[in-house]
Amino acid sequence: MVNIWFMIHTDTEKAILQAAKTVFYKKGLAAARMQEIADEANINKAMLHYYFRSKEKLFGAVFLQAFGELAPFLNSIFNSDKPVFEKIREFVDGYITFVVDNPYLPTFIIQEMNINPQFGETFFRNHVTPDPSKFEEQIAREIEHGNIRPIDPKQLVLNLISLTAFPFVGKGLVIGILDLDEIAFKTLMEERKKLIPEMIINTIKVQ
Questions:
Q1: Consecutive sets of 10 residues in the chain, 207 residues long: mean pLDDT of each?
Q2: What CATH code is carried by the domain that includes residue 17?
Q3: Which sections of the sequence are annotated for DNA binding (predicted)?
């Protein structure tokens, strides 16, 4: 038998989280108001406080949900047994696809961690986060075996992340400088799925 009470409460909580995501993405933690979130979710403020007693707790839930979508995906690539070059291609293709579908996520995460570093530090201590250590060890082995040019594995990971993430984090700047509309921006990002891996691989592979 279906538990109607559970379904109603689950649907309400989902609606609250979606509404909070919309408001937090637009305004950030400091400027967002609980009443705005309640209005966005089409519930009253008392109902909102029943589920989440404070804006900070609600923000934590939204942040966890957002990061919870990204971290497992990145770790599935970092921790796989696939070759380094294949991982590079999968990371770039998957990350760009993911962010095109969740366009506010990178800016949201970085913005809030810059505004509130303590929140970020606490979050990273208590939750699953991207861990490239296995990938870095794999890079070091490939260098030792003479398959990759010498490079600090952390620098390679940083290059991979920054080349892939920056156009989304700095989207307004990119669109302004390159005089792009939304369609042209997405086309450019699709092209980067092939451009970034080949650029990185051609830089590090032994000819």
A1: 44 90 82 93 92 86 77 90 96 90 73 73 72 96 96 96 92 94 95 97 93
A2: 1.10.10.60
A3: 33-52
